[in-house]
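User: For a benchmark we're assembling, each entry needs the component sequences followed by a predicted structure for the full assembly. Here are entry 17's components. Please fill in the structure.
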Amino acid sequence: MPANLKPGATIGILGGGQLGRMLALAAARLGLRCHIYSPEKDSCAFEVVKASTCATYDDERALMRFAAAVDVVTYEFENVPAKTAALLSRRKAVLPDPKVLEITQDRLIEKNFIAELGIATAPYAAVHSASQLAAAIETVGLPAVLKTRQFGYDGKGQATIGKASDPAAAWRKLRNVPCILEGFIGFEREVSLVAARGGDGKVECFDVTENEHRDHILKISRVPAKVPAPLAAEAQRTATRIAKAFDYVGVLAVEMFVVKRGRIRTLLVNEIAPRVHNSGHWTIDGATVSQFEQHIRAVAGWPLAKPLRLGRVEMTNLIGPEVNEAAAWLTVPGASLHLYGKGEPRAGRKMGHVTRVWPAR
Amino acid sequence: MPANLKPGATIGILGGGQLGRMLALAAARLGLRCHIYSPEKDSCAFEVVKASTCATYDDERALMRFAAAVDVVTYEFENVPAKTAALLSRRKAVLPDPKVLEITQDRLIEKNFIAELGIATAPYAAVHSASQLAAAIETVGLPAVLKTRQFGYDGKGQATIGKASDPAAAWRKLRNVPCILEGFIGFEREVSLVAARGGDGKVECFDVTENEHRDHILKISRVPAKVPAPLAAEAQRTATRIAKAFDYVGVLAVEMFVVKRGRIRTLLVNEIAPRVHNSGHWTIDGATVSQFEQHIRAVAGWPLAKPLRLGRVEMTNLIGPEVNEAAAWLTVPGASLHLYGKGEPRAGRKMGHVTRVWPAR
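Assistant: Structure for entry 17:
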């Protein structure tokens, strides 16, 4: 059960990217302070808070000072080192509970966890050696995607194996680290469900979001997603069950495929992100409460809000040099431009986003 | 013409209260930095920025360092000392142009300015001595309100003179400073019009807002206001003319009375606030662009957005100890709670506000 923070209390956030930045901006609206901890000197989240620590995640003295300066700790990314989380946990509540990270930091453990809940995923198999790969292909079929068990995001640490390609090449590309082979899913659409779970166990889901990726990076999110109502309800139930199984406090996102077999549509869970999620950015401008505020409310021990959507919504990521054309969005009716205050617009770097809302009439 | 700031540029803000805080939060979304200048150590706006200066408004060295550290200067309150503004103007653009302050800091000059534009106000007369008061009462009639020409806000520096009361007592209460006597208006409702004017001269108005005061402090704003469409259009034209006459850059608010004489409703301008305004707080949650973002866009030399309203909206101020009951708002559907991070909830102090939106269906 999280502490019931008073206004003026300080939330410590591990990570100084755009998610930490938007969490801090949401906290500020509620009269809560944030203290950002990040190893990178030019972290964009540093700009929107008074208190920050620039130190590595294994700097024990800095971590202890950070723990002493805050009332609760949360994080903006799922690759928080287990040791860092454990160290902080001894001094202050860390939310969501770091035991969630042990599951979601490893694709194999995560998939097993989902499967044990009786929730459908794509077929998968562990691959810990070149020889195990052949057996995995036998189980999963081809085409399939070989993924490193740990530290993958935005398509990094992945290799597709087609019927004509050499599996050994994929294995070498991923440098012989423990992997998981996932059956390639011919999906109709990709959707995600962003949900918040409060310290009191109550869950509030945002509307199912339809996601379009380019080069393995989210490009556009659209709400409402084009899915039938029963499937949308199933997506909410799935996210709620996962959040409950984790005894989760905060916001999480569940990425899913909509698969059509004949006339039947079903959902397969692809991935869980134990944090605020890019596909939930639309909630800042498109709903009466944002995913960032819900997360802050949850870790502060405050009740969640019931989100109401404000119209049809479309969120577009500004990736790399696309940010140089951002000004064109300033005069688009109903568009809200968000720039993260990052430095160089390197290829693939998320520099900002635009949310366009068409208010209902 | 304001500078066309690049993302990452720094806007200097004079004043560290909730208006400066909300301006800084709006700038952060756009990837712009803010540097807050305020004499008060515990300024709530300091909490949401990395760079701040705590110094008095007559500290020339601090002002020069501030000017050197920012790309443009704006302010959150209308009582910026003329000398401070003049000093800063020599180094950096100050927007809106401080010449506006010379007008709006003095009720008499302001009223003359409005009258010269051919815009209706309540009857008024200058009162610079006890003897002038009798003549003023002759002109304006009773009941009337005696107000100090300078430094009045939220009902401070005012004394009502009724038909039975002693005018000399009112004059003594205001301590013999230059005053203005304003005819008491039997209005149907109080409304305000918040408008933004960009560096390119384009004006964008928010919807007319209906305001309810308690103890001379704004308590509730409602949108849409219950005024006929032609009157709403007139309010927008009035604000637009005032903004143009000032060659204004930024957001201003025009407070007006709706007066009903027989079956005819007319508008009388009561006051101009050359800044973002409490009656525009609803735009953060109730429109696709907020007054704070419009102001930041204007002073940054960026184009304004066309505001779309997201539904019916009601904004309630949390004044003084009312903030202690703020948690009750957290679970009201469509309500967004804003707490300003101020210290003691002294009587009459604006501690936060709540915006409730009923999205259109």
